[in-house]
Amino acid sequence: MIVERQRIDEIFSHMGGNSIIILGDLMMDRYLWGDVNRISPEAPVPVVEVRNETLLLGGAANVAVNIRKLGDNPHLVGVVGNDLRSETFNILLGDNGIRSDGIVMDNSRPTTIKTRIIAHNQQVVRADHETTEDISREIEKEIFAKIKAKISDAKGLIISDYGKGVITKKLLGSLINLCRENGVFIAVDPKDVNFKSYKRVSVITPNHHEAGFAYGKRIRNEDDLKEVGWGLLRLLDAESLLITRGPEGMALFEKSGSLTFLPTAARRVYDVTGAGDTVISAIVSAVAAGASLPEAAYISNQAAGLVVAELGTAQTTKEALMKEINKRLKGNNNG
């Protein structure tokens, strides 16, 4: 699928300044970078000599960073623990120009952090500090109130579900009703635990593994893909379903009966961490700017191609994305 340059210019001219709410599991991504030169005498494992450390926003917070870099105004809502990590988390929000007034502190859970040890550009191990218990009814109510207060100004709601307990079935149902009553575009990056609760949303963006698992059929070929895609769309009564397929690109299923295939835009792949965050952010930012769903999917595909070429949690800017798309369009015209 190719979008005309005139439409790209028109969409990007309206991209920026739109209010977008992001709800989901908040976390930090910690990277320890180093080298392996020996095996431990204590156990047959490599010893990583750490040279550098990076701490970044992850999960739904990374979606908010994506939205900010695309020029829109993110309103991040989620839960952190009453611990030292939450203080660091709030500092990172400020560093990225994201407000913390939508963050709820929960004394019963830790602030999620994922630590990845990287040696010679390869991930050696990951350690997760988290809980996956559902939030309490009181926290649910507090989250809903924060979103309800912002909904009238919002162009979109992104639900970034990492299965850590913030996206409960009750909260999800209430938010979908709230968005539909207010005409707000709802996009969901799903987790299998809640998959069948994402009913009547505007778009849901599973990868092919998640989609196949949710439908109960492994996707091995295009026929399987179509069966799973149309089946899930009917099951969820959603407006659209975008299945990301790694090196096979993306497939957009729409309630109208339209099916759009988008070949991968990635020239090289170093790290897929956070790629799903970029996809859903670019879709909602583009729709908020007036793009159709196929146009938004095209733009998000190009954005994903940029971030997977970077090692670690990455994002792209509006300017870099437009430059990449124009380069692609120029190449296609020359071809």
Percentage of β-strand residues: 25-35%
Q: Helix and strand string, N-terminal first? A: HEEEHEHEEEHEHEEHHEEEHHH
| Chain-averaged pLDDT | 91
The number of strands is 13
What is the percent of helical residues? 25-40%
What is Rg? 20 Å
Main sheet strand line-up: 5-4-1-8-9-10
CATH architecture of one domain: 3-Layer(aba) Sandwich
CATH superfamily of one domain: Ribokinase
Structural class: alpha/beta
Sheet of most strands:
6 strands, parallel
Rough shape?
A: globular
Distance between the termini: 15 Å
CATH classification class of one domain: Alpha Beta
Low-confidence stretches: none
CATH topology of one domain: UDP-N-acetylmuramoyl-L-alanine:D-glutamate ligase
- Tally the helices: what do you get? 10
